[in-house]
Amino acid sequence: QLKDGAEVNIMKSIYVKDIFTDDIETIDENCAFNMIVDKIISGKSQIYPVINKKRRLLGVVSINGIKEYLYDREVLKDIIIAGDIAEKDFEPVTLQENCQHVMDIMGPNNLEGLPVIDEKSHKLLGMIWRKDISDAYSKEVESRDIVSSFSKRINMDNMEQLVHIMEGCAITEMPVPRAFIGKSIKELDIRAKYGVDIILIKANIGNRSMIKTLPQPDYKFSYSDSLVISGEISKINVIKNI
Predict the structure, then answer these.
(1) pLDDT in tens, 161-207
(2) Mean pLDDT in the chain?
(3) What pTM did the predictor assign?
(4) 63-72, 149-158, 166-175, 178-187: which range is least confident on average?
(5) What residues have CB less than 8 Å from 163, skipping those under 6 apart?
(6) Which candidate, 131, 125, 141, 126, places its Cα nearest to that of 103?
(7) What is the Cα–Cα distance from 33 to 241, expressed in whole angstroms?
(8) Which of these, 100, 128, 194, 238, could form a disulfide with 11 (CB 3.0-4.6 Å)?
(9) Contact present, 103 and 110 (Cβ < 8 Å)
(10) What is the pLDDT of residue 161?
(11) pLDDT at position 34, please?
(12) Which residues have C-beta within 8 Å of that of residue 214, sequence separation ≥ 6?
């Protein structure tokens, strides 16, 4: 079972940029009410972003948001447009934000999804859904449990180049990248930028290797270090190529 605070820490380690969906349906601000109703009733989503011609986010429409208008659908069908009824009292999120922040917004408002926008241009990039956050959280918990169990059994002197621990994920040892030397784990923001976890830091002395430290945010890397990291194989390959 998770310890106090572990759930929040895991949520903070999952970023919008890694799980948001860019393949979404949108509604143009000039879309007629009748077309909006048809789209929401026949569509798969509960929330649709409303955008202008420059793809800037203006608001969202949802089944709950249009309920009060449905009784007058025939009267309103050619009078009201999406820009008139779009809900604007909500907080979109950006790619750099973590899922704890997203859930803090979704929770009180009982939302299933939030629009994701570019931080500078405010153009719509996609949506992040509660279900995808839940799936990513479960995967992260499973991965951490496996890594924790596996790392206790690692023979540090006979570490294979790449040890598969679950589908698409592995543990591996690698020399510390030159760009990391003299910088701290916190300063490099490794988990956020590269999506991998540092399990151990080793010191290589002659032909021998010894565990130097368990990862601490303020630890600064030196030229003799090597890292034992875990994560998705594609992300491990990225950090290996730095």
Answers:
(1) 566 667 788 888 888 999 999 999 888 988 888 888 888 888 776 66
(2) 82
(3) 0.65
(4) 149-158
(5) 150, 170, 171, 172
(6) 131
(7) 52
(8) 100
(9) no
(10) 59
(11) 84
(12) 200, 201
Assigned token pair, 154: 């690692």
* Token pair listed for 205: 């002395």
Write the secondary structure of 108-171 as one string of H (helix), E (strand) and C (coil): HHCCCEEEEECCCCCEEEEEEEHHHHHHHHHHHHHHHHHHHHHHCCCCHHHCCCEEEEECCEEE
Out of 1-5, 64-68, 88-92, 174-178, give the one with best mean pLDDT. Answer: 174-178
Q: Token pair of 229, please?
A: 């990291």
Q: What is the 3-state secondary structure (H, E, C) of the chain?
A: CCCCCHHHHHHHCCEHHHHCECCCCCEECCCEHHHHHHHHHHCCCCEEEEECCCCEEEEEEEHHHHHHHHCCHHHHCCCCEHHHHCECCCCCEECCCEHHHHHHHHHHHCCCEEEEECCCCCEEEEEEEHHHHHHHHHHHHHHHHHHHHHHCCCCHHHCCCEEEEECCEEEEEEECCHHHECCEHHHHCHHHHHCEEEEEEEEEECCEEEEEECCCCCCEECCCEEEEEEEEHHHHHHHHCC
Among 137, 117, 129, residue whose Cα is nearest residue 13: 137
| Residue appearing with tokens 């589908």 | 167
Which amino acid appears at position 164 of this protein? H
Q: Which residues are CB-neighbours of 125 under 8 A, at least 6 positions away?
A: 20, 22, 95, 116, 117, 118
CB 49 within 8 A of CB 103: no
Residue 83 has pLDDT above 80, yes or no: yes
Alpha-carbon distance 54 to 234, whole Å? 34
